[in-house]
Write a structure and sequence with these properties.
Structural class: alpha/beta
Distance between the termini: 33 Å
Number of helices: 14
Number of strands: 19
Strand order of the largest sheet: 13-14-15-16-17-18-19
Shape: globular
């Protein structure tokens, strides 16, 4: 169900990961890195193109090209990956002709950023012929400055919770074996071991490290067909990055994991609704029983659900059982574009809005998982509608997560044709919202502090 949370596993440092299709085919989502020598060659290519032709970097939004200034760029963060984009020529700005030009024979590249960073401009390129749709990653523009690689992004969350530099994989493996011995009959722990060690899920790894947020996947099925679903791609055009859970754990198995994490973790969060499952509200009965078991044993910890919020009745029952917070995924607050992307089955955007309203009335903490696309999210119409949405529903937090999808195909498939003059800028709208809505938290990850402060 979840569309592109950008929570893949990252190696230390900055690596050139090769062809985006090759990475997706061979090692999605645990990215397989290529030798650093490729990075040096890439830097050489970028440097020659700048020095020989006096060209300037460009970014792209909705198929429109923009000249990138120093203020648009940040140094490529540790844990980033750089992909080559086959059958796509790089586009740059020529200050002599004052035009954007494609570099014949030079393949486009893009940066895939670690969690906590939101893309502000996509890689600028032109498709050659009819290329395959790009795999489910976010494709940030990048450029060379002073011998270093820079990228078009803004950091929205400083939490290290998904930073693999602080995840001891030997300890993850040791504790996975240890936890299985403690709970030998718990099938969900076996599933989480696979998530952590085979698919690099940060939350699964954090569970085995007794840190931050523990995942509680429950649902093998979904009631939406998101274009960018990372766990289910029926047409085979692009590959899912991780398979869905194939069973429904019992309330006792769920509660066992949650209570263990709450007991052994500082500021613990346990969350339903993960990248390796469908829609958790389809298992609301199981989740309701699990929450009651957890809350019967302890009042500590934050119980959260990441969801499409398709069932207001289920949301009400879960909050009555002891749920603390809800994170609702949206690509848009306008029904037309929401429906085009999510393809909901048996529910509507009105149900989503009603669920949010119920969560607030139940005094729950409500976050919006705002799947961000440069050129659409920062368009005047979407920004105006989003501000009204924040006022009407009293949203507590915005999580600025990149929507992992082919940047050109998104606009074509959604039939969106925004004007360049209507694009306000991702960084700019975040800054404007901070000023206009100072009480709304801005970030990338689920929060313990914000939720827990509401309960005190």
């Amino acid at each position: 169900m979840r569309g592109g949370p950008g929570s893949n596993d990252y190696g230390k440092g900055q690596k050139i990961s090769g062809d985006a299709f090759q990475v997706n085919r061979e090692a999605a989502p645990a990215i397989r890195h290529f030798p650093d020598a490729l990075g040096k060659r890439l830097q050489g290519i970028m440097k020659r193109s700048r020095e020989d032709n006096l060209l300037e970097p460009a970014g792209m939004k909705a198929g429109r090209f923009f000249k990138l200034s120093a203020g648009d760029l940040i140094k490529l963060p540790p844990g980033s990956d750089i992909f080559k984009l086959p059958s796509r020529e790089a586009v740059v700005y020529d200050p002599v002709s004052l035009k954007f030009v494609s570099q014949k024979g030079r393949i486009a590249i893009a940066a895939f950023l670690p969690p906590g960073y939101t893309v502000t401009y996509n890689s600028a390129y032109k498709e050659i012929g009819k290329p395959r749709k790009l795999p489910l990653f976010a494709y940030a523009a990048c450029a060379l400055r002073h011998g270093d690689i820079y990228t078009a992004a803004v950091r929205v969350d400083v939490s290290p919770c998904h930073d693999s530099r602080f995840m001891d994989m030997r300890l993850v493996e040791t504790n996975a074996r240890k936890f299985l011995k403690i709970f030998p009959k718990n099938s969900l722990i076996r599933h989480l071991k696979n998530c952590a060690l085979c698919y690099g899920c940060p939350n699964a790894k954090n569970f085995f490290l007794n840190k931050y947020e523990a995942p509680l996947p429950t649902s093998p099925s979904c009631n939406a067909q998101c274009a960018g679903c990372i766990s289910y791609q029926p047409d085979g055009q692009i590959r899912q990055t991780q398979p869905r859970i194939k069973f429904i754990p019992s309330p006792e198995e769920i509660a066992q994991i949650a209570l263990f994490h709450i007991k052994n973790t500082k500021n613990p969060i346990v969350s339903f609704g993960q990248g390796c499952e469908g829609e958790p509200l389809l298992c609301a009965g199981i989740i309701e029983k699990a929450i009651k078991l957890i809350r019967k044993a302890t009042s500590k910890g934050v119980i959260n659900i990441n969801t499409n919020a398709s069932s207001p009745e289920a949301v009400a029952r879960l909050f009555d059982a002891g749920l603390d917070s809800i994170r609702v995924s949206l690509n848009s607050v306008r029904q037309k574009f929401y429906t085009s992307y999510y393809n909901p089955m048996g529910y509507s955007f009105g149900d989503v809005a009603k669920s949010i309203d119920i969560a607030k009335k139940k005094k729950g903490f409500v976050s919006i998982n705002y799947l961000t696309v440069p050129g659409f999210t920062d368009s005047k119409d979407e920004f105006t509608a989003f501000k009204k949405f924040l006022v009407i529903y009293g949203i507590d937090m915005i999580q600025w997560r990149n929507l992992n999808y082919d940047p050109l195909r998104y606009f074509k498939e959604m039939n969106i044709k925004p004007n360049a003059s209507d694009m306000l800028g991702i960084k700019e709208i975040i800054d404007l919202l901070k000023k206009e809505f100072p009480k709304v938290r801005m970030g990338y990850f689920n929060t313990y502090e914000g939720v827990n402060s509401r309960r005190v």
